[in-house]
Write a structure and sequence with these properties.
With about 90 residues, this protein is mostly helical. It has four helices and no strands.
């Protein structure tokens, strides 16, 4: 752990920026996969739990399919390693 007066490295600043940017873009992309075709929030909420489960399932399916098609096994393993590091960040 660093003290508050320790300078933050350029790589840490860049990584922080990249993580925020990528997560925002991924969130928007996932939201597109379960677009409700113009329904209002109250209309979509009235469909209940089944709708929410379908949204999660559609997001996971889209993401898994995209990862399979666009990345090699080695690249996917690298992503898993990076995600483990990010998990460690949020758990501390």
């Amino acid at each position: 752990m660093t003290s508050p007066d320790t300078a933050v490295s350029a790589s840490a600043v860049r990584a922080a920026h990249e993580v925020r940017t990528v997560i925002g873009r991924l969130r928007r992309r996932l939201k597109e996969t379960y677009d409700t075709e113009g329904l209002t929030p109250s209309q979509t909420s009235s469909t209940g739990q089944a709708f929410r489960e379908d949204k999660r399932r559609a997001s996971v399916e889209w993401l898994a399919r995209s990862l399979q098609q666009r990345y090699t096994e080695r690249e996917r393993q690298a992503m898993l390693e990076a995600l483990a590091l990010l998990n460690r960040l949020v758990e501390s």
